[in-house]
Amino acid sequence: MSIEPTQVSREAELGAFLRTHRERLTPSDVGLPPGRRRRTPGLRREEVAQLSGLSATWITWLEQGRPVAMSVRALGSLAEALRLSRAERAYLFALAGKPEPRQDAEPAVPVALLASVQAISGPAYLLDRQWTARAWNAAAADLFVGWLDAASGERNLLRAMFLPTALQALVEDWPHRAARLVAEFRVHSLRHAEDPPTRALIERLMEDSPAFAAAWRSQDVDERQGGRRGFHHPMRGLVYFEQLTLVPPAAPGMMLVMLLPETP
């Protein structure tokens, strides 16, 4: 005779699952500074709250096995923050008694995040999981001739970098920057590697660009970092910027990239 698990036991199981996976992560795993000395292993609840855009109190209650009303969106944000695998994510939704949404659909971009791109004075753009530009401002359109300008029909950064010739002429030291871009994308795309759009993008680029194929087969990996970036602009000549990349907690998988004018 089988006995169905009670609601209380299901909630306790969910709490234990979340706590265990939080304790497995380190700040460096999620791009956070180490901070002060830690008395217990793993991330703090406050850090998970920061990454997921949820309340630290809400996460505490979940780990304690309290009854908490959870939306599908909140669970998805929590799964992203904890870097859950596909199987772990499915298990999380099953424990919570919620249907797991399809992962091949790109999440909606928060309105406030779209507005922030336009509010930035220097070139700024927002990349999705496949590094397709979802938003950019006028300064970015003016700088990135062949990608974000009105005449370009290609909004994916990788495809624009490797297939047309415009960005190859625009980006200073293109061979190095292009190879570095692939190494960064390999790391960024790891959590979405099985998503159909990500697989399709990589497979098509492998076919269409020998340079991309060689860089991808090299197995090089690198973090998305800022630093000095040079561009041979067709109207302004050689210009330099300091690149800064942010990962908005409210939009898991996306990146906000800003180019700050280089100061003398």
Automatic annotation (TrEMBL):
InterPro entries found in the cross-reference section: Cro/C1-type_HTH, Lambda_DNA-bd_dom_sf, MLTR_LBD
SMART domains assigned: HTH_XRE (SM00530)
One Pfam family, short name: HTH_31
A single GO molecular function term of this UniProt record: DNA binding
Domain of life of the organism encoding this protein: Bacteria
Residue ranges of every copy of the HTH cro/C1-type domain listed in the record: 17-89
Name recorded for this polypeptide: HTH cro/C1-type domain-containing protein
Organism from which the protein derives: Cupriavidus metallidurans (strain ATCC 43123 / DSM 2839 / NBRC 102507 / CH34)
